[in-house]
Amino acid sequence: MQSFPFMGELNRLHKELGLQMVAVNLDEETQEAEVFLAKARPEFTVAADPQRQCAKDFAVEAMPSSNLIDRKGRLRHIHKGFRPSEVEELRSVLKQLLDEPAS
User: Fold this and answer.
1) Domain range for 15
2) Are 11 and 43 in contact (CB under 8 A)?
3) Number of folded domains that form the chain
4) What is the per-residue pLDDT for 95?
5) What integer is the mean pLDDT of 63-73?
6) Contacts of residue 89, Cβ cutoff 8 Å, sequence gap at least 6
C-alpha cells in the first residue's frame, strides 16, 4: 500500500519519457484484489495473475518487488520490498534507464 503513491508519482512524471508502469496482482481471490485496489487507487496499469506465473517467471522473493526493464526488454534492476529510505535510489536507477537511447 505504501508503494502505490510513489509508483503513481513516477508514472505521472515519466510516462511521456517512455515509462510503462505495470503492477501485477497475485491475489487468488478477486474480491481481495478489488478491495485492495479500491483503497490503493492506482494511477497505473494493474494486471491480474492469480496463477502467479509472473512471480515464478521473475523469481519474486519479496512483495512488493520492482523489476526495471530497459527499452530493449532486458531486466536491469530488481528492488525487493519498499522502504521510503530507498526512494532516491529507485529514482536514480529509473532516471539512468530513461536517459538511455531507445535504439
Assistant:
1) 3-98
2) yes
3) 1
4) 95
5) 93
6) 79
> Taking a C-beta distance cutoff of 8 angstroms, is the pair 2, 82 a contact?
yes
Provide the mean pLDDT of the chain.
Answer: 93
Q: What are the b/e assignments for 38-56, b being 16+ CB within 10 Å?
A: eebebebeeeeeeeeebee
Q: Is residue 83 part of a domain?
A: yes
**Residues 88-99 pLDDT 10s:** 999 999 999 999
For every residue of 68-80, DSSP letters joined together read EE-TTS-EEEEEE
* Residues 79-85: contacts with CB under 8 Å, at least 24 apart: 82/2, 82/3, 82/6, 84/2
Question: Which CATH number characterizes residue 57's domain?
Answer: 3.40.30.10
pLDDT per position as a tens digit, 17-38: 999 999 999 988 889 889 999 9
